Amino acid sequence: MSTKHSSGLGDRFGDGLWYVYVGLVALFLMTPLVSLVIASFYDGRFFSIVDYEFTLNWYEAALTSGSVRGAFTNTVYISVPVTILSTIIGTAAAIAYTRYEFPFREQFKLFALLPIFFPLILLGLGMSMWASQINLGYGVVPSIIGELVWISPIVMFVVSITALGIDPNIEEAAKDLGADTVTLYRKILLPLIADGVVSGAIFAFVLSWNNYYIVSYLSGPQSTITTWIHGRMTQGFTPVVPAVASLIFYVSILLVIGAAVLEYRSVDEGE
Known about the structure:
- This protein has helices at 2-40, 57-64, 66-99, 105-113, 120-133, 140-164, 168-176, 181-192, 194-209, 213-218, 225-235, 240-270.
- By secondary structure, it is mainly α.
- It folds into two domains: 1-40; 57-270, MetI-like (MetI-like fold).
- Helix 2 packs across helix 12.
- The relative contact order is 0.12.
């Protein structure tokens, strides 16, 4: 009896330590972001917690600034095509790797995932040199191509995790019942991996939305929101910067919440 009681206390103590550890990690990660949001509402040029005064002036200045609107527009022009194209490319690659046998299959996986392991600053520099060599120029289109090289493998990885969890016998049964290739993909396979595809698309948008290193080399004179922030931090700080950075954070949080809601709904429907 005492042994079981001690074991139960030990398990509860271990669980408690685990929750404390997770809470401390979350606090460590969130503190800079929360500090940024607090600073974005501060009515003053240099932040001070002692005489803190609340204001929305910096958000108003950010939303009415032509340069900020232009940077946001360029970011959307890059992020939306990157999300769509990387989701298509990554999903197709994931299906090819997880559902088919072909020569050099493992080598294909390693080659496809290789850009993930490159430092982004080197990847951006390499893409910049490539764009210059083929006279592609700099701007939105080269930025889209550069981000696709990095983000498509991530989408492939995310979708592959979902696809590997699907029983191949389901597809075999559909084929035995007369389903052709189009029907198999449209009514069987794609609905089964839909959660992974949506998660991959959200990952793609968030990564593209927050990317700096690749677009800083490829966007040229057309600023994105991340290059705009970097320029203001290095060429003369303005209190509008925390407000703009917070707006990026709000968009990312909304996407994460949306992904969580979709996951919750899929779990409920599965039950």
